[in-house]
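Reviewer 2 asked us to include a model.

Predict the structure of this chain.
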Amino acid sequence: MTTATLHTKTLNPAQLHILDMLYFCRSQQSIDDLNKILADYYAEKVQKEADRLWDDGILNEQIAN
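Predicted model (C-alpha cells):
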C-alpha cells in the first residue's frame, strides 16, 4: 500500500466513548449484551421516526406496502 492510498480518519466523540466502554467487555456475554442495547436503541429511534412520518402524513398504508 502506498502513502497515496492511506487515509487518516478521526473518531468522533461517540466512537471514542464506545471504545472506552469496550474496556469493560471482558466476556462474550458482555459483548452480546452491549450489542443488544445498541440494537434496541437504534430500533427505538427508527420506530419513533416512522411514527413521526406517519403522524405527519408522509407515510401511510399505501406507501408502507
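The mean pLDDT is 87. The longest helix spans residues 28-55. We have added this to the supplementary material.
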